[in-house]
Amino acid sequence: MYLYYIITKILFLIFLNYLIQYPLKFKSPIHVIPIAFAINNLFTYPLIVLLTSILYNSNPSTYYFFHIMIPDNFLEENKDKINGLCKKYDQCKIIFLNMGEKYKNWKTDIGYYPITVFYRLSLSDLIKDFNKLIYLDCDTMVHGDLTDFYNIEMGDSYYMGFPGHEVGYLEINGTRNFINSGVMLMNLEMLRKVNASLLFDNYYNTYGTKKVDEYLINVVFYNKIRFLPFKYGIPDFEKGQPIADSPSFFWRTLNGSSNGTEEEMISGSNNRVITHGAYRMDKWWTRNYDFLSEIGKKWIFYASKSNVFNDICNEYRQYLSVCSKLK
Description:
By secondary structure, the protein is an alpha/beta fold. It has helices at residues 2-21, 44-56, 76-83, 85-88, 123-126, 147-150, 188-193, 196-207, 212-220, 247-253, 262-270, 298-304, 309-315, 320-326, and strands at residues 31-38, 62-70, 92-98, 133-136, 140-142, 159-163, 179-186, 225-227, 232-235, 274-276.
């Protein structure tokens, strides 16, 4: 009986390894999707809520490989909390990537970003088993299965992302292709061929950066960037926000440079798959529930489906009254 168990386990591990090595060639109904994230200890719970939103809305045939880039001082207890999610949901595998001292001395003129934002510049070196990758910031929520997103044809593009509002005024070598780096589809195969991480290093060492990693991605690969359909990475619109007041308001800030119509922006908002809380510094987990949009209120709902809901309620105590209703 024990021998049978060992043999079964070995065969299963071989099967998983095959999925990693040949994700696009495998002919089974399983869709294997790699996604990367970059966090420090402070973003443990926001990441868990994001991962929960992915798994809660996943199709049964989708299996996710979560690659999580962390600094040297990331706590083991936080790793355990994140790993616990894949014990509750069996459609995922978690891989921690310790970045050590990488980017430790890099600076930016925007002082409120953690150094972890630069980690994604190394992804083409770090992840060798896939030729394509989704990257998501922790201030995102996923409202559907990501298979269609992952299967978008990239052609000769290196990055695809939601159009940043900068396209309305910022021109880079005659183009206005600026994307927000918080939601991206990455062509790892092409990035490896050009040694992308070295190109980023060289640019930073020569010129620095004006807006952390996002600026580097857009400047170095300005002619190899395309926009995603609006439903992937669309803001959490709220009346009165300087940029993300409404779909129509945001579309107008793009100044016709997004390759999409106002109607498509509105449709993307109504049929959103990924929401990005990019346009305000106070995030869903730091705000009072009563002041959140209907989309924003989904954050605590997804938290309630996680493996650490009680911990989240105790950490963000402004949600305690809501937590008691969701338990």
